[in-house]
């Protein structure tokens, strides 16, 4: 199959043109450093979004796990939240939050696309991460809870010291997969302003009338996501072995 | 006077009534053994005494005070009544020592330093001094169960409940856990055990209660109950297990 592609595609009538505009070595060399530079912004956005997503996801998961009848409104809120933000495409949330909120006429720095873009990513990804945490919490056997309560621990200490540490460890691979997806979705913020790698590639494309910068950008993403994906798979396999 | 007194305890899970009016009295320093087939209600009764399960009807008096009243905070009661489970239920992400320290530190607010002398003494007493830094999965079943007992004792409970604590152990490990119970018995601990170890019950119990279909069908000193059971069902059960 691969061999067929390698052999046949260059025979296509448009190949020389495609090769020139997508795999132009000269353009690649010229734009690659600039792309790497722009990628630092992707990494920065990822770096400050990820801890926020982790914290928000955990809070939403705990809301959904609230047992006391008096806390039912909290629980309902958690359910509505995860349903809504898992149900809407990320790009729509980014558009609505990223253009909508600054559109209220807020002064600097409260109209920054970095700020509202981050909020949009956190809102969306926290919903997914919350669901992962919730599965983790539910996977811890009831007997652990019983043992903790029987020692006189409160419900909140039981969650904090006994259930959560085990649950969070158990869902590390699942969360890693989400954070790999987040790393890619950071590029969507380019639609509301920030000149990160995808946007920078677009700028080069227009300047040089050549698509090679997009290929460069793709290679840079792969250089990060492939090792991360392999590592997540490795963790998952390790857990499976440990449990069997 | 009775330390613990149960009257008319009823507990259902859905349509299945597991405890159908249980009456039980445990005096200070007494060791009471609950025997009976699986599903007769022994475990559920113990879980109710520790308030892990809310009861549907009846009273549980601890020093004459009803602890099963709805709406009562179960936490202080659980600190006074310890329980050890069949499947150990140690916290797998903590070392043996951390398992033991967690509740006294969080619930009683005591420091690690203040706790260490007595906790070390407990580990030493049950032959676990060299296992304090081990994680549960690095310990044998018998060691895990002894750590679970140390964990419960570290809260200095007044009454201990044991729910078939040797049933999940390999036969050669049962002895070391029963030795712990002998030790506690000699120490005067008030205990209620659900057990299948008839020889042990006969040797050490002050009172043996035979549970059948959610009620205590018959109770008495072990010498009496084991040699002259009054009920046909008790006789049938004993002839199966002895």
UniProtKB/TrEMBL annotation, chain A:
Cellular component terms (Gene Ontology): ATP-binding cassette (ABC) transporter complex
UniProt record, GO biological process: amino acid transport
Signal peptide: none
Location of the protein in the cell: Cell inner membrane; Cell membrane
Sequence intervals crossing the membrane: 38-63, 84-102, 114-133, 207-226
Superkingdom in the source lineage: Bacteria
UniProt KW Transmembrane keyword: yes
ABC transmembrane type-1 domain sequence ranges: 39-232
Record GO terms (molecular function): transmembrane transporter activity
Topology within the bilayer: Multi-pass membrane protein
Record keywords: Amino-acid transport, Cell membrane, Membrane, Transmembrane, Transmembrane helix, Transport
Function: Part of the binding-protein-dependent transport system for glutamine; probably responsible for the translocation of the substrate across the membrane.
Family: Belongs to the binding-protein-dependent transport system permease family. HisMQ subfamily.
Alphabetical list of NCBIfam families matching this protein: HEQRo_perm_3TM
UniProt name for this protein: Amino acid ABC transporter membrane protein (PAAT family)
From TrEMBL, chain B:
Keywords from the named record: Amino-acid transport, ATP-binding, Cell membrane, Membrane, Nucleotide-binding, Transport
Keyword NADP: no
A GO CC term attached to the entry: plasma membrane
Signal peptide limits: none
Pfam families (alphabetical): ABC_tran
Coiled coil regions in record: none
Subcellular localization: Cell membrane
Domain ABC transporter: 4-238
Source domain of life: Bacteria
Principal subcellular localization: membrane
MF GO annotations: ABC-type amino acid transporter activity; ATP binding; ATP hydrolysis activity
Membrane topology: Peripheral membrane protein
PANTHER family: AMINO ACID IMPORT ATP-BINDING PROTEIN, GLUTAMATE_ASPARTATE IMPORT ATP-BINDING PROTEIN GLTL
Family recorded in the similarity comment: Belongs to the ABC transporter superfamily.
Protein name: Amino acid ABC transporter ATP-binding protein (PAAT family)
Organism for this UniProt entry: Silicimonas algicola
Organism placement in taxonomy: Bacteria, Pseudomonadati, Pseudomonadota, Alphaproteobacteria, Rhodobacterales
């Amino acid at each position: 199959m691969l061999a067929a592609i390698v052999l046949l595609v260059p025979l296509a009538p448009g190949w020389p043109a495609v090769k020139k505009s997508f795999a132009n070595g000269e353009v690649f060399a010229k734009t690659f450093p600039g792309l790497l530079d722009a990628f630092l912004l992707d990494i920065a956005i990822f770096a400050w979004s990820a801890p926020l997503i982790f914290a928000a996801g955990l809070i939403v998961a705990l809301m959904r796990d609230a047992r006391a009848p008096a806390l039912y409104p909290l629980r309902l809120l958690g359910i509505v939240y995860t349903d809504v933000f898992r149900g809407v495409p990320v790009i729509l949330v980014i558009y609505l939050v990223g253009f909508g909120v600054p559109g209220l006429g807020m002064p600097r720095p409260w109209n920054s696309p970095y700020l509202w873009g981050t909020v949009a990513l956190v809102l969306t990804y926290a919903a997914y991460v919350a669901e992962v945490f919730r599965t983790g919490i539910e996977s811890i056997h009831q007997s652990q809870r019983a043992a903790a309560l029987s020692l006189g621990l409160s419900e909140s200490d039981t969650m904090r010291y006994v259930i959560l540490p085990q649950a969070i460890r158990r869902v590390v691979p699942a969360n890693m997969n989400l954070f790999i997806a987040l790393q890619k979705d950071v590029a969507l913020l380019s639609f509301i302003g920030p000149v990160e790698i995808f946007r920078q590639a677009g700028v080069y494309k227009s300047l040089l009338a050549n698509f090679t910068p997009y290929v460069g950008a793709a290679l840079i993403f792969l250089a990060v996501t492939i090792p991360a994906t392999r590592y997540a798979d490795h963790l998952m396999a390790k857990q499976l072995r440990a449990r069997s | 006077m009775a330390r613990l007194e149960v009257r008319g305890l009823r507990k259902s899970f859905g349509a299945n009534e597991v405890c159908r009016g249980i009456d039980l009295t445990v005096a200070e320093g007494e060791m009471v053994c609950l025997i009976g087939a699986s599903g007769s209600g022994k475990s559920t009764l113990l879980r109710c005494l520790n308030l892990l399960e809310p009861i549907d009807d009846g009273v549980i008096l601890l020093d004459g005070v009803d602890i099963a009243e709805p709406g009562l905070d179960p936490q202080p009661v659980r600190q006074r009544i310890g329980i050890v489970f069949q499947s150990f239920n140690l916290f797998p992400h903590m070392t043996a020592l951390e398992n033991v320290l967690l509740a006294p530190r969080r619930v009683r607010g005591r420091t690690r330093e203040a706790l260490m002398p007595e906790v070390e003494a407990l580990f030493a007493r049950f032959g676990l001094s060299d296992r304090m830094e081990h994680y549960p999965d690095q310990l044998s079943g018998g060691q895990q169960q002894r750590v679970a007992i140390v964990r419960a004792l570290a809260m200095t409970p007044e009454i201990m409940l044991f729910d078939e604590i040797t049933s999940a152990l390999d036969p050669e490990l049962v002895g070391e856990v029963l030795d712990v119970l002998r030790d506690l018995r000699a120490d005067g601990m008030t205990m209620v055990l659900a057990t299948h170890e008839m020889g042990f019950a006969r040797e050490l119990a002050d009172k043996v209660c035979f549970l059948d279909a959610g009620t205590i069908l018959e109770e008495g000193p072990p010498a009496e109950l084991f040699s002259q059971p009054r009920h046909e069902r008790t006789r049938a059960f004993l002839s199966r297990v002895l």
